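Handoff note, outgoing to incoming analyst
You'll be picking up this chain. Sequence as last confirmed:
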Amino acid sequence: AQVALLPESNLGFVLLTNVTETPLQQESIYLVLDHLASTEPLASKSNNDKRSVDYKEYVGEYHANFASFKDSIFTFLVKENGVPAVDVPGQTVYELKEPDHNGKWYFVMTDTISVSFDRDENGDIASMRMHQNRMDFELPKKGIEIKPEIDPSELQIFLGQYQSKTFNGPINAIIQNHRLTLDIPNQMAFELHLPDAEGYRQFRIKSDISAKFETDNTGNITNLVLYRDKEKIVDTAPKNTGKKVVELPSVDEIMALMNTEKRKKALRRKSGFALTGTINMVNSGLSGTITTLFDDDKSYRQHMDFGTFGEILVTANDETAATTGINPYTEFKGKYLKQIRMDHPGVAIDLRANVDKIQVTGSNELNGTQVYVIRTKVKDLPSRTYYIDANTGDILKLKTKLLNPTVGSIPITIEYTDFEKPHGLRVPMKTTIKNPMMGKAIIEYNEFKAKQKFKGSQFFIKDNSAK
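Most recent structure output, in case you need it:
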């Protein structure tokens, strides 16, 4: 939904769409109000006139390493119509307005995102900054070397792990781009400014958050303290000194704990599985039925039926994947195809075989249960963090980000409970999914059948949108 008001003209409108997110939400502000209220266009129509900036020095590639963008390239360019724009990888080319008096170039589509540029001591463009949601992301220009602000040897004392209860894992203090950096679990690496007179080190991308290191009488670092506005303590994380290090199991030992080999055999022997149950979209008030079919390879089908409110169908096989229903037919390609395949229930049975990298990163406590923390990575996708029950090997929780072609990425948390062991698989019969786009969804399965016979067409959706 999108709401926009123009009080001086006594105008306002509400836009409702049948998709979760769309660029039309922001663009509609200009389209509607331009048409109804103004003789002077509000958006990019007037942006082409009387250009006062020479864009040549800004044109180029800028290196992004934040949020879902890992070693990605943003490109500042000038379109054929003379309008400056930023090409955001995996999304689209966003047109820009002329820079304002603060040097910010706002997106034409929305005034909530802008870019600005930093210059070096010679006056040349050194980096581009993206401003969004009170965050300030720095993207060095490709080929420009970041010079150290301080002798790296002076940062050595701060390096190491700090055990955080707030973020359920160790915060790693590292050096990145010659800067002291905090790599926070399930979030990203935050580079820090040099300390002020009081010892606060502001996050370079979020100035209201700062870090401070506490020491004992001998000058050794004891705690990392995170503050909001230099007043409210967000987290106090003691430094891991190595004296109480818990030896972590190897990946092989984790696979054994999860009983991977026996479950793989059961998956192959009884292939043709059907789960049926209910789904409750808590925040939207929708409820319905859900059916999930899957085999022992890459094929699965998930159908959610919300009655008069519509249905959602997702299918995947060894070649393609697609969805249709409430949203129009969409075929998943590239990284989105990789992402949807990770939803196959068999992935959780053999994690190692379905990822490019897997690492045991820590040991923690989750709702009173001792867990091992596993981080996996598939090329082009955000990393995934799994919380494995240290006694049963059950996956109790998953934290990751979902790639979205419109908004970039969406953080998501999935919790698994009510484990049963039908057909030798041991699966969670209840799943709770949380993300800021849809809120909270609860899936509860009440029936699990094996050795079902499926047709290949059940894992394929035909595109009938052109008819």
